[in-house]
Design goal:
The chain has 206 residues and is an alpha+beta fold. It has 2 domains: 32 residues; 146 residues, Sortase, Chain: A (Beta Barrel). 26% of the residues lie in helices and 29% in strands. The protein has 3 helices and 8 strands. It has an 8-stranded mixed beta barrel with strand order 1-2-3-4-7-8-6-5. Strand 2, helix 3 and strand 3 form a beta-alpha-beta unit. The radius of gyration is 24 Å and the shape is elongated. The termini are far apart. About 15% of the residues have low confidence.
Length: 206
């Protein structure tokens, strides 16, 4: 009886050791396969946790804006330029968000407001080298300038995050405050279709 018990204990220990070694091996394989994505995600989390502590959102009264939109652009036409000095972005903005529009530059979601209207503005662009590949370099406090035919608007980044493409709550449409939300596909070096988005959020400050 005692011998049978010892054999059972030894067999159990061997099984646990084999399972542990298998788990470690699996972890190493996954880590090496997704090393770049893991490191990038960790760096983003670290930046957000550090920068949010000392940031106080700037405020601006919308009645200070005197320029008004008189002629809304037609779908698919260019109406503005977006400039982000931090990552050397200086691109045309088109009203529309279909694939054909995004081939030409940055798209403006037709369901969102225009600069100067005091609500949510949603821009999007590919994560290609000539568009938003360097998005992860942006930090809280960096500026985004949008120049239109009726005025120039300057926004300051106050947050950024990685979301799922189906997370519509992360891109809220509201009329209480002018917020510019710009997003691209994530991972930023992804080839093919991506199911996540890298979003930066910016308040109107000037």
């Amino acid at each position: 009886m005692r011998n049978n018990l010892m054999k059972t204990i030894k067999a159990t220990i061997k099984t646990l050791i084999v399972a542990l070694l298998f788990a470690v091996l699996l972890f190493l394989i996954l880590f090496l396969s997704f090393k770049n994505e893991i490191n990038e995600a960790i760096s983003i989390i670290d930046l957000i946790s550090v920068n949010k502590k000392n940031y106080e959102p700037a405020e601006i009264k919308m009645d200070e804006i005197t320029k008004k939109i008189t002629d809304y652009p037609e779908y698919g036409t260019r109406y503005a330029t977006i400039k982000i000095d931090k990552i050397d972005v200086n691109l045309p903005v088109y009203f529309g968000d279909d694939l054909e529009t995004l081939k030409k530059g940055v798209g403006h979601s037709s369901g969102s407001y225009f600069p100067g209207e005091g609500g949510s503005i949603i821009y999007m662009g590919h994560n290609s080298k000539d568009v938003f590949r360097r998005f992860s370099e942006l930090e809280i406090g960096d500026r985004i300038v949008v120049t239109t035919s009726y005025g120039q608007f300057e926004y300051e980044i106050y947050d950024y995050k990685i979301i799922n493409e189906t997370d519509l709550d992360a891109l809220p449409i509201q009329k209480e405050k002018e917020i510019l939300m710009v997003f691209t596909c994530y991972p930023l070096n992804n080839i093919g279709y991506a199911y996540r988005r890298y979003v930066v959020y910016a308040n109107l400050v000037k």
